[in-house]
Design brief:
The chain has about 70 residues and is of the alpha+beta class. It has a domain at about 1-35. Helix content is about 25%, strand content about 20%. It is built from 2 helices and 3 strands; from the N terminus they run βααββ. The chain has helices spanning about 5-10, 10-20; strands at about 1-5, 25-30, 35-40. The protein has a 3-stranded mixed sheet. Strand 2 and strand 3 (about 35-40) form a beta hairpin. The radius of gyration is 23 Å and the shape is rod-shaped. The termini are far apart. This is Type II toxin-antitoxin system prevent-host-death family antitoxin.
Length: about 70
């Protein structure tokens, strides 16, 4: 979707809700030229930084009785 800056200014909140609902980006133009793009934010993983690699490692051999 594409909209000029004046229309975006007048309907900003409604258009932001539409971007969030449809997950489609919105291009804002000024004098017919694109100047900005509003895109939906992707949902972050519930684990955040901690735990995002859970289940990806593999233990090989005896990790308790390692010879010195």
């Amino acid at each position: 979707m594409q909209v000029n800056a004046a229309e975006f200014k007048a309907n900003c909140l409604k258009m932001l809700d539409e971007v969030a609902a449809t997950c489609e980006p919105l291009v804002i133009t000024k004098r017919g030229k694109p100047v900005a793009r509003v895109v939906p934010i992707e949902e972050e993983d519930a684990h955040g930084l901690f735990g995002y690699m859970k289940g990806t490692g593999k233990i090989v051999g005896d990790i308790i009785n390692v010879p010195h």
